[in-house]
Amino acid sequence: MNIVRIIFSYIIFPGFVFTAVVGLFLTWIDRKVTARIHWRVGPPWFQPYADFLKLLLKETMIPEGSSKTLFLLGPLLGLVGMSIFAVMLFNMNFNPSGSFVGDLIVIIYLLALPPIGIIIGGSASKNPLASVGASREMTLYFAYELPFLIALTSIILKAGGSIKFGEIILAQQAEGPFLYSISGVIAAVVIFLSIQAKLSFIPFDIPEAEQEIMAGPYIEYSGVALAIYKMTRAMMLFLLPLFLISVLWGGFANWWAILKLLLIIVLIILVKNTNPRLRIDQALKFFWVGIGTLSTIGLILAFYGL
Amino acid sequence: MGNAKLWGLKKSPWVFHLAAAPCNNCDIEILDLIAPRWDVERFGIVLIGSPRHADALLVTGVINRKTLPRVLRVYEQTPKPCLVIAIGACACSPNIFTPSYNVVGPYDKHMPVDVYIPGCPPKPETMIMGIIKALKRL
After folding, report:
1. Which residue among A44, A50, A221 sits closest to B7, beta carbon to beta carbon?
2. Can you say how many angstroms the Cα of residue B67 is from the centroid of all Cα atoms in its chain?
3. Nearest C-alpha of chain A: how many angstroms from B46?
4. Is B41 close to A54, i.e. CB distance below 8 A?
5. CATH code at B115?
6. Over its length of 306 residues, how does chain A's per-residue pLDDT go in tens digits?
7. Measured between CA atoms, how close is B3 to chain A, in angstroms?
């Protein structure tokens, strides 16, 4: 019985299916809000599901001379990582004092899986534009990971030195969300910009810049493999704002969390639609010098309990 | 399940713009079609950059000896099923260029063409009408 419940939680409820369906709906919100900003009508609500079904119908082509195993492994890595991440996130929020040991270190590794999948797939597809995209993805990963880790460290300091996810949420329930302090606001800004880069949205869509390298690492993908990449991206659009809410805004085990989630997503879309794309060196400088300094100041403030 | 997938194909045709030696007039009209004024994202039509992601090829221009191998290569790279939409008078038939030594005939001599949209250049409204009519008949 227990095993059935575990499998159910990974495949159906907080895991794969639920996250994918909600995530695809959120990509529709992204496209619709973008369209309204462009003064257009925008696609109907079922558009992401139609895209997904259509991609299942198409044939999957494997480019000549590429590594077949790695080419098909690339999309799956990110999908598996995001499914496990979804289960951990929901477990920790709805049962924060449970015995399930989930800590921030595991979550950092799980969040690294989608970029690794993109890098593996892009490098395996034997296309010069995909290689450029994969190398940019790697550079961008190193760029946003440093301030992201520093911001997480300041959250750990505020939670009394605990890296357990459940204890972070319990500490927020006891003494109010971490967001309502100076270092909390700084950590929120840093994590927000890291989310923007993790989702490869403008201004950080350098790995898949449509106007210069077409689709970057995805350029050789078609059919089911491309559908899995799109779905992983949709799941990230759902899970990363939830992660921000649960580490800084008091967890999402209440109805207010839906409004918080929509607020964060609309903010992400607004930043996406009102900014130009940075070059990869500018993005690295932005994250390591500008945002890195900001997150270090936040860390020092958190150390003194501000 | 087959019906659901066909519904998906009808509702989200992603187009790849294949300009094979046109005079660029049709291409400018295609860019108009994609831009906010006509907003074809209402029908799920999105312009994408790689033929691997494409469901429909928008071909323009008179096909000649130099462009024929490239056009065929892009057609082979596109995952099937895919639509081929010939846009403009030159793509439907090589009209005034027929006597030229370099012209190797219209597109339908070399690959299956699903939709012909005549005009020099066709208006974006015409293109929308042609594509929607073709999708209804799938």
Report:
1. A50
2. 15
3. 10
4. no
5. 3.40.50.12280
6. 688 877 877 777 777 888 889 999 999 999 999 999 988 888 888 889 888 888 888 888 888 878 888 888 888 998 888 888 888 888 888 877 776 667 888 888 989 999 999 999 888 888 888 888 899 999 999 999 999 999 999 988 888 878 888 888 888 888 878 888 888 899 999 999 999 999 888 888 888 877 778 788 888 888 888 899 889 999 999 999 999 988 888 877 788 888 989 999 999 999 998 988 888 889 899 999 999 999 999 999 988 877
7. 10
Min distance A41 CA to chain B CA atoms (Å): 7
Q: Evaluate whether residue B65 is within a structural domain.
A: yes
Are A214 and B50 in contact (CB < 8 Å)? yes
- pTM score, whole prediction: 0.87
Portion 111-170 of A in contact with B at CB < 8 A:
none
- Expressed as residue numbers, the domain containing A163 is 2-303
Q: Is residue B16 part of a domain?
A: yes
Q: Determine contact, residues B117/B130, Cβ cutoff 8 Å.
A: yes
With respect to residue B64, please indicate whether it lies within any of the assigned structural domains.
yes
Query: Is the ipTM here above 0.85?
Result: no
Structurally, chain A folds into a number of domains equal to 1
In angstroms, the separation between the Cα of residue B75 and the nearest Cα of chain A is 13
Specify the number of domains making up chain B: 1
Q: Which of A38, A46, A219 faces B52 most closely, judged by CB atoms?
A: A219
CB neighbour list of residue B43: distance below 8 Å, 6 or more residues apart = B11, B13, B128, B131, B132, B135
The pair of structure tokens assigned to B6 is: 């066909």
User: Which residue segment(s) compose the domain that B53 sits in?
Assistant: 11-136
Asked if the structure places residue B20 within a domain, the reply is: yes
Which residue, A60, A72, A148, is CA-closest to A108?
Answer: A148
DSSP, collapsed to helix, strand or coil, labels residue B60 as strand
Q: How many CA atoms lie within 13 A of A217 on its CB side?
A: 28
- CA of B54: which chain A residue's CA is closest? A222
Please indicate whether, in this complex, the C-beta atoms of A53 and B39 are within 8 angstroms of each other: no
Asked whether the beta carbons of B102 and B64 are under 8 A apart, the reply is: yes
